[in-house]
Amino acid sequence: MSYSNTIKRAWTENRLMSVLLELTYACNLDCTFCYNDLARPGQPLSLTQYRQLLDDLAKLGVLNLSLSGGEPLAHPRFFDIGSHARSLGFVIRLKTNGHAVRPAMAERIREEIDPFVIEVSVHGATAETHDRQTRVAGSFERLVTNIRTMKSLGLRVKANSVLTRWNEHEVEEMLALFNELGLLFQVDPEVKPRDDGDRKPLEIAVSADGRARYRRALAALAAEGEADIDAARPEAERRPPAARTDKHCGAGSNNLAIDPYGSVLPCVQWRVPVGNLHDRRIAEIWQKSRELLGVRETTTAARRMLEGLGDAAVGSNFCPGAAQVYSGNPLALYPAVEQKIDESARARLRLTVL
User: Fold this and answer.
1) CA distance readout (Å), 345 to 60, 61, 190, 204
2) Helices 78-87 and 103-112: crossing angle, nearest 10°?
3) For 4-29, how does the pLDDT look when each residue is reduced to its tens digit (9 = 90+)?
4) For residues 295, 54, 58 and 155, what is the CA-based torsion angle, rounded to 10 degrees?
């Protein structure tokens, strides 16, 4: 069975395949557009609870496990959690800003966690741009040094970037940097509000010209055989035809996110709890949560809504979680989606005129 057909089956049959654990909101950087709600109170999960959770996820047949944050390496029991996950056979993805992954740390990650990939956050092609967004001087130079160290140790490294008004002028240089360092990469063209609804990060959202510039740069690399366009898109945009079902996305159907305080979320962007691990174990939440059932129904409604609006809406990277943050309604269009639909309409008009 192909992977796309496996995804289709997981979406249709509600088979949990992927879980993202936000281990902590602590971080050694101070990124301008960080989405975490740092003021949110709660009781952190204990190491015992994490071990129970990982055991339960293994019994549910979960394949992919992402360790994220904040900065996951800032969690005091990171290696205890990660090594237990490794012992259970998960495909582990480590999402880190890379700032703390110096040689000794990189070696320990390789020996104790053995992640499938380490995803690092890259915010520009120069120290001026990257450090402006992290608000920590020297963070770019340290990151590049740490990436070279990880690569030299045989670790697989991927760059995750968000296009902003601050880095859109150097997208070609960013792609060249990824190529020079031998990195897989994924670029998100959309800055989103913070989890608490604060829209200040949108002040540095990429311009329409910046998005177009990135598409041209990526297409040029692809034409030269230097980039996989599909792999460089955000995960929400990568839905091969064979994987299409009656649901818009796999939120709550084949993937979940869990915050540091045990709240179980449909996905990392859809911040509406469907249960809490302090009250119930993950299997009971997955099988019996009425809130989770509502999420699955919403993803079906989202697909019908977008199809009714046309191809531009279907391909707009609409996210019910982002819609929830913008307006409290997971089915409401929001500015970034409306802009993409408008751009598509203008493009069709130009073709008609020609």
Assistant:
1) 44, 43, 19, 25
2) 30
3) 788 888 888 999 999 999 999 999 99
4) 100
